[in-house]
């Protein structure tokens, strides 16, 4: 498959999963919607032969997301509306972290290929993503600047971990996917 076309499909699949997870509380199927997002990205990863190679990043993303977001909630920097959760991290956000981990390499490789780009890119991207979530009414920055700094720190740490795992667990070339 054309790599540009494949990249476009990966972006569209990730964005669709993002919508399914983030807007779960706004849908008629709030408990099911995040799982549909996971199924969508897992299906794409399986179809492209990338599912196995995405496991280390997906698991680390899951753990970093639960610990990081729950810490921001416990520190009274971030607030989520009532929804089933793990230590304060809503399950729709847990699902989103899994989707993100699975789609990290096909969508965000440019960031992962350089440590500084990982730290800066994920820090800024994390803040923008959470700010978007606030604008959609699915989360709240309790204290604006401290929350921004907390999110940026969470994502800087995630960027370092993702970069390390990207280097430690080599990504199969496009030829190995098909």
Features of this protein?
178 residues; mainly alpha; two-stranded antiparallel sheet; disordered C terminus
What does this structure look like?
The chain contains 7 helices and 4 strands, in the order H-H-H-E-E-E-H-H-E-H-H. By secondary structure, it is mostly helical. The protein has one domain. Strands 1-4 form a two-stranded antiparallel sheet. A two-stranded antiparallel ribbon has the order 2-3. Helix 1 (3-22) runs antiparallel to helix 4, helix 3 crosses helix 4 and helix 3 packs antiparallel against helix 6. The chain is globular, with a radius of gyration of 16 Å. The N and C termini lie close together (8 Å). Mean pLDDT is 93; it is low at 174-178.
List the helices and strands and how they pair.
Elements: H1 3-22, H2 33-47, H3 51-74, E1 78-79, E2 85-86, E3 89-90, H4 91-112, H5 115-135, E4 140-141, H6 144-168, H7 174-177
Antiparallel strand pairs: 1-4, 2-3
Helix pairs in contact: 1-2, 1-4, 2-4, 3-4, 3-6, 4-6, 5-6
